[in-house]
Amino acid sequence: MSNNNQKKIIIVEDEPSLIFTLRDTLENEGYEVHIVEEGSTAVDKVQNIDPDLMLLDLMLPGKSGYDICKEVRELKYTFPIIMLTARDQEIDKVTGLNIGADDYMTKPFGVKELLARINARLRRATTYTKTGPIDNLTLGPAELNLKESYVNKPGEEPIQLTTREVELIRYLVSRTNEPISRDELLEKVWRYEHSTNTRTVDVHISKLRAKIEINPDDPKYLVTLHGVGYMLKVD
């Protein structure tokens, strides 16, 4: 039985044993769970239930997880998407992040780690600054609208930001002109409680640079401090 306070999670997966495990685990945690086993019906289901988070398998009958992710983002949905994949090649993970996913997990994965990532994605910080969340930011010619999750750059169509990218920008803004380590970003933005070998931070920084910098290969604002981490430079 659902209530208005329950977070809705849509699971797009066709493996029966994994569906059973995920549904049982998430319902025991108090989530409202919706299952989609055919890729071709996933986007319609999203529009019907307006979920708070999606667990999305890459290899599905009817339509791939990549295509579903792209369509969901094109419809301007910004809820977190965690991709579930049996592939362990880095290029597959980077591709997923580049088209709008917020995170990924490679099968087989531990249920506890999945729950930790789901909880982290759903714990949306209400503010990173003393004066409240910043909704608009100008970085050179780039105009960022964090409330509506997009970037305007001269001569280009509006560029969509993911929920993770918005959270990352907000945290960087709260520490403007200060060096921030990868571990700190993992803790404060991803809410991981321990260091990890994942390149998630680097991948997201690279994606974000491509969206906000005029020349991502020579960044002026989101800069790398070798051996330290990153810094958002604002005059």
How is this structure best described in words?
This protein has 235 residues and is an alpha/beta fold. The protein folds into 2 domains: 115 residues, Response regulator (Rossmann fold, 3-Layer(aba) Sandwich), CATH 3.40.50; 97 residues, Winged helix-like DNA-binding domain superfamily/Winged helix DNA-binding domain (Arc Repressor Mutant, subunit A). 36% of the residues lie in helices and 19% in strands. It contains 8 helices and 11 strands. The strands form 3 sheets. It has a 5-stranded parallel sheet with strand order 2-1-3-4-5, sandwiched between helices. A 4-stranded antiparallel sheet has the order 6-7-8-9, with no helix packed on it. Strands 10-11 form a two-stranded antiparallel sheet. Strand 1, helix 1 and strand 2 form a beta-alpha-beta unit. It is globular and about 55 Å long.
